[in-house]
Write a structure and sequence with these properties.
alpha/beta; six-stranded parallel beta sheet; six-stranded mixed beta sheet; Rossmann fold; binds NADP nicotinamide-adenine-dinucleotide phosphate; 2 domains; Dihydrodipicolinate Reductase, domain 2
């Protein structure tokens, strides 16, 4: 028997048969989310899975140590795992590769004409690669034409941000757009699934908080939102002008990155009711286009004084909505609040699916 978790889809008869896709790094934490979410997708169909030499040649069911709380989809279980670098039949390629190999491999597939929609950090800050959150910066897709020219073909790479960055950038987007941000301080409490399955030993994390996450986590959170909330203008990205200070912690939750945020606004303090309204009413291209994975409301505002909480709020809109709460004045800066993002859905595989849906809706696949 097969049981799958499916995001709600808005069926579109024009898009049958579904587009065949490949997943690079399909056996990992993010890769398994891709496989899970693709099982119920109305536009895309999982056709190929790719992983390391450790897994290639085996069936996906044999190679993947399936860790999600829905059953492994039977169609995926029988696929043979291909090795990285193999020729692929799919033009659309999702990547959940380890960053030690993602840079070169993603470039290689894009140069062969594939559309690579990546989670990895390697190409996020490239000057012609969109770092995309479709609700926030869909116009950054303008960079693809320049990237295609550089590659001399039709292939290209689009990336989604770091898992904490997505939560932060979405939560602050309505505030930056309406009131302008001058300075921002963020402290994250990040779930252990963000480190991959073998990432943090239980002996290290149980009864503990680790005030450090390697791989340049703080630097990513300090730089990526500025690109995301900046503009694509005259053939280049212009960063948003505000500065960010980030401190990160690994905490013993399974899924859901929680963060506390304080902000100084460009025009001084704003009315809290107006900010709340801006957060609640924020929508973008995915909602306008009715993309299958789009949350109806990208940012939920939780009114209870002790929310959002990872266990209670991470699955809102199937893990695709960010939840904000506790908006109040800050005695040092102007305002402060709490935000929560599901790190492997909105922060990884779900984000990449939404990016690919936007590309399809814009005729770019
Ligand atoms: P993971 O669980 O360690 O999975 C890594 C995947 O990469 C596996 O499929 C692995 O295949 C494959 N791989 C490793 N070395 C390889 C090699 N030499 N050649 C080919 N394939 C290789 O990692 P993860 O947590 O899913 O993260 C994947 C990527 O997404 C990372 O770049 C990470 O920074 C990013 N990311 C993760 C999250 C998150 O919440 N976890 C969120 C956003 C972004 P084998 O199983 O065959 O070894």
């Amino acid at each position: 028997m097969t049981e799958t978790l499916t995001l709600p889809t808005q069926t579109d008869a024009r898009r049958t048969p579904r587009i065949p896709v490949a997943v690079l790094g399909a056996t990992g934490s993010v890769g398994q989310r891709f496989v899970q979410l693709l099982a119920g997708h109305s536009w895309f169909r999982l056709h190929e899975v790719v992983a390391s030499e450790r897994s290639s040649g085996k069936s996906y069911g044999e190679a993947a140590d399936w860790r999600l709380d829905t059953l492994l989809p039977s169609d995926a279980a029988s696929l043979e795992v291909k090795s990285l670098g193999s020729d692929l039949e799919s033009r659309l390629v999702f990547s959940g590769l380890d960053s030690s190999v993602a840079g070169e491999a993603e470039d290689d597939y894009a140069n062969r004409g594939c559309v690579v929609v990546s989670n990895s950090r390697n190409h996020r800050m490239d000057p012609d690669v969109p770092l995309l959150i479709p609700e926030v910066n869909a116009e950054h897709l303008g960079a693809i034409e320049r990237q295609r020219r550089r590659r001399g073909g039709n292939g290209y790479i689009v990336t989604n941000p770091n898992c904490s960055t997505i939560g932060l950038a979405l939560a602050i987007a309505p505030i930056e757009r309406r009131f302008g941000i001058d300075q921002l301080h963020v402290t994250t409490m990040q779930a252990i699934s963000g480190a991959g399955y073998a990432g943090v030993s239980s002996y290290a994390i149980l009864d503990n908080v680790i005030p450090y996450i390697g791989g340049g986590e703080e630097e990513k959170i300090e730089t990526e939102p500025r690109k995301i909330l900046g503009r694509w203008e005259n053939g280049r990205f212009v960063d948003a002008p505000f500065r960010i200070s980030a401190q990160v912690n690994r905490v013993p939750t399974i899924d859901g990155h929680l963060m506390t945020i304080s902000m100084k606004l460009r025009e001084g303090s704003a009315d809290l009711g107006e900010i709340r309204d801006a957060i609640r009413s924020f929508t973008g291209e995915p909602q306008r286009l009715g993309l299958p994975t789009a949350p109806k409301q990208p940012i939920h505002y939780a009114v209870e004084p002790d929310r959002p909480q990872p266990r209670l709020d991470r699955d809102r809109e199937h893990g695709m909505a960010v939840t904000v709460g506790r908006l109040r004045p800050c005695p040092l800066l102007d305002i402060r609040m709490v935000a929560l993002v599901h790190n492997t859905i909105r922060g990884a595989a779900g984000a990449a699916l939404l990016n690919a849906e936007l590309l399809e809706a814009k005729g770019m696949l």
